[in-house]
């Protein structure tokens, strides 16, 4: 006959609802998991928001980009955010049942080197294939000249002075609509990236639609203010200093929890041992 864990003490019902005690153990475990996720999601993951683009670029196995606005304020984003006009996962795909739609990975429509197992892995793993799809639809005519490397990821330097890459901007909606019209009329010369769209505007292949600026002049004084020529190359810079301060602060905060966690684990193990001895003696 099998011996119950701790003589089945967790199978006893509580005095109020008469539910087994292990039910409450599962509830406590679920609550702890949710709390751990919240603690990781906001204070930890949220603190590194400026570097999220590197993570998504690494996950998608693409490049990243330092993208600058009109004020020459930069943000590091994935190559998809910086270059792709369309979000292919939001395209309408007909003939799918509810089960198929749940398991469906949009990348398998465009890329023939993804089998079912990897399609499911990529879908639930959240890997984005927009860059690969855009490259294929553009016959691999792709603007990519990495200027820097950040965290092992090659990064382009892109100036977006007219908010083209801001998905909620009116400019993006105009570019998306104009590109759709061009692609319908020219299936062998499609436009799926902002650099190609801008190149076709400046060469006159596509007429500049109302609300879009094909060229923008940045005053030299603004460039010098953002990238002063007199800045020392050896200076660590305020961003690096801030990153080091955050790292040291994080290490200090974590060191405060090591001893309580260790003592709590030892105490819980001792409590289980005592309960085990008591149950074997009196039951």
Order of helices and strands: HHEEHHHHHEEHHHH
Taking the sheet with the most strands, its summary is: 4 strands, mixed
| Overall tally of structural domains | 2
Q: Roughly how many Å apart are the termini?
A: 16 Å
How does the SSE layout of this entry go?
Elements: H1 21-45, H2 52-59, E1 64-68, E2 74-78, H3 79-83, H4 98-103, H5 107-110, H6 116-125, H7 130-137, E3 148-150, E4 153-159, H8 170-185, H9 194-202, H10 220-226, H11 237-282
Parallel strand pairs: 1-4
Antiparallel strand pairs: 1-2, 3-4
Describe the structure.
With 283 residues, the chain is of the alpha+beta class. The protein has 2 domains: 1-49; 60-231, no CATH class. Helix content is 51%, strand content 7%. The protein contains 11 helices and 4 strands. The chain has helices at 21-45, 52-59, 79-83, 98-103, 107-110, 116-125, 130-137, 170-185, 194-202, 220-226, 237-282, and strands at 64-68, 74-78, 148-150, 153-159. The two termini are 16 Å apart. The mean pLDDT is 82.
Main attributes of the structure:
alpha+beta; 2 domains; 4-stranded mixed beta sheet
Compact description:
By secondary structure, the protein is α+β, with helices and mostly antiparallel strands.
